[in-house]
Amino acid sequence: MKRIALFPGSFDPFTKGHEDIVLRGLKLFDEIIIAIGYNSQKQNRYFEIEYMEQKIIETFAHQPNVSVIVYSELTAELATKYNAKYILRGLRNTTDFEYENSISQVNRDLNEELETVFLITSPELAAVNSSIVREVHRYGGHVQKYLPYML
To answer: Which of the residues 5, 38, 89, 132 could staple to 72 if both were Cys, CB 3.0 to 4.6 A apart?
Structure first.
């Protein structure tokens, strides 16, 4: 059976930390679907979702076992549609764990076949997060070193 993992997130923007999780996840899974979700908690995106979708596709153009989709539904239901039995998530710190643990419990309750796999962020990328990158970019700072693609 093919091991398919969803890597869901708002990815606003998709950072080198996200890229690291996908590349390391490819050692565990046969296929990874990067699922860009509309987060109901984040009303206004900084980068248009279609722009980010294209940038992520470009980033993994040479990885045939990585695909990118946009979705607006429960992640547990999306996993069923794509026959994904795993959710892939990155953890930078204990705060991430607390948040992600709650989500993984609900996803498992909604879809009992769904397992969440956590990868600890590589140390050199642990300080990189989308919120900080957005803020630096908003005020004209250079963010290229945090992104796996050209803005």
So the answer is: 38
